[in-house]
Amino acid sequence: MAAAEWRVPRLPQRKPAVTRAQIETIIARALGVVGLVFGAQSLPLALDQADALGLGAGAALMAGLFGGIAALAVATVAKVAVRAACLVFAGFYVAALAAWPLLVSDPSALDGAVPWLYYLCTVATTCAAVALPPVWAAAYTFIVPAMYGVIRFTPAGGEAPPLLAVLDALYAVVLGVVVLAIITMLREAASAVDAAQEAALERYDLVARQHATETERVKVDALVHDSVLTTLLSAASATSEGEQQLAARMARDALHRLDEAGASGPRAFERVGLPVLVRRLRAALTTFNTNFAVRVVNAGGVELPVEVVDALYTASVQAMVNSVQHAEEPGRRARREIRIRGVRAGGCVIEVADNGIGFEPDRVPSERLGLRVSIEERIANVGGKSEIASRPGHGTTVTLAWPAGALGGDAVASGGASGAAPAAGGDA
C-alpha cells in the first residue's frame, strides 16, 4: 500500500516570476549602467580640472573612482562580489571627498566650476543603498551630500554662494533618498512574494499528503470490503456445494488481489486498451454461478490509464457481486447484464444492470462500504463519475464513467436488463 506515497501530486518546478534574488540582480545591473553613464558624464570635467589638483593627485583620483566604476560594472554583470564592489566604491568616494580640499593646489583653476566629484555622488549613495542596511544607507545618503555642500562653499569647491551650495547638496540628498526608497520597497515586495510562495508551497504539500493518505484509506477500505469482507460473508452464508465453490474462488481471488496491492508500483502514466478491461471483466464473470449478458460497443482504439482500468474493473466487479447477492427474490430469477461502451479515443462507460428486487439508494447507510467506497469513491478518486438508479421491484443499474464528462446528461438512458434505470446493486 506504499504506492500512494509515490503518487503524491507535486507542483511543477517553475521558476518564480519575482524573487528577492532576481530583484537584487536587477538593482545591481541598473547600478552598473548608472555608474557608467555618470562616469562618462564626469570624465571630461575631471580632465579639465586635473591642473587644479596637485601633481599626480588628479590622475590617482580618477584612476581610483573611474576604475571603481569599471569594476562595479563588471561585478554586476558577472553577479560576483557585487556587495564588496559597492562597499569599496562608497568608501573610496567618501575618502576622495574628504581629501578634495587637500588635493586642490590651485583653486583659481576651478574658476567657480562644480567639482567633478559631484556627478558621482548619486553613484556612491546608490552603492550604499545596495550594500548597507537601510539605516546605514540612509545615514550615508544624508552625510555624503552634506560633506559636498560644505566643500562647495570653500575655495576648493569653487566658492559657491551659500544658497547654491545648499541646493546642490539637497539635490543630491533627494536623488539618494528616492533611490534608497525604491530599492527598499522592491526588496520588501520581493521578500513578501517569496514568503507567500513558500507558505503556499508548504500548504499545498500538506494538503497533497493528506489527500494521498485519504485516497489510500479509501483503497484499503474498498479492498477489505471487496476481497475480505465479501468473501467471509459469502463463506458464512454458503449452504450448497455451488455456493461453497463460489466462496472458495472468491477467497483465492482475494489473496491474489492482496498480493497485487502489496507489490503495486506507480503506473499512473501507462495506458492500456479498453479490450483489456473487457477481457478482465469476462474473466471475472467466470467466477459467478449467475450468468451476465455482456454487450461491448466501440471498444477498439480506446485507451485508458492503468489506474482507471483498475478502478473501473474493481467497481464493476463489486456491482456484479452486489447484484448476485441481493437482486434475487423468491420464486423469480433475475436477469443481469453488463454493457461496456467506448467514448471517443479515451473514455469509457460501463453499466451493470439487473431486473431484480431493487432498493432505495437514499436509504443505504453511509457507513456501508459497498456503494460508498467500493464504487462511488473509487471511481471519483480517478476522476470519473458513478450514478445509481434503483427502485424496489424495478431492478438496479450501476453506471460508471471515465472521465466524468463521458457520462453526459443521459448516461442512464438504456436502463436495466428489463428496463430498469441505471444504478448499483444492493450493498454487502
Classify the secondary structure makeup into a structural class.
Answer: alpha+beta
What is the overall shape?
A: rod-shaped
Mean pLDDT: 78
Supply the number of helical segments. Answer: 11
What is the H-and-E element order? Answer: HHHHHHHHEHEEHEEHEE
Q: In the residues, how many domains can be counted?
A: 2
Note the beta-strand portion.
5-15%
Q: Strand order across the biggest sheet?
A: 2-4-5-7-6
Commentary on this structure:
This protein is of the alpha+beta class and 428 residues long. It folds into two domains: 20-198; 265-428, Heat Shock Protein 90 (2-Layer Sandwich), CATH 3.30.565.10. The chain is 59% helix and 9% strand. It is built from eleven helices and seven strands. It has a five-stranded mixed sheet with strand order 2-4-5-7-6, covered by helices on one side. Strands 1-3 form a two-stranded antiparallel sheet. α2 (20-48) runs antiparallel to α3 (57-78), α6 runs antiparallel to α7 (162-237) and α9 (274-285) packs parallel to α10 (306-326).
Highlighted features:
rod-shaped, 7 strands, 428 residues, Heat Shock Protein 90, single chain, disordered N terminus, 2 domains, two-stranded antiparallel sheet
Summarize the structure.
The chain has helices spanning 3-6, 20-48, 57-78, 82-103, 121-131, 134-153, 162-237, 241-263, 274-285, 306-326, 369-381, and strands at residues 271-273, 293-297, 303-305, 336-343, 347-354, 385-390, 396-402.
Task: Compile the SSE list and pairings.
Blueprint (H helix, E strand, L loop, with lengths): L2 H4 L13 H29 L8 H22 L3 H22 L17 H11 L2 H20 L8 H76 L3 H23 L7 E3 H12 L7 E5 L5 E3 H21 L9 E8 L3 E8 L14 H13 L3 E6 L5 E7 L26
Parallel strand pairs: 2-4
Antiparallel strand pairs: 1-3, 4-5, 5-7, 6-7
Helix pairs in contact: 2-3, 2-5, 2-7, 3-4, 4-5, 4-6, 5-6, 5-7, 6-7, 7-8, 7-11, 9-10, 10-11
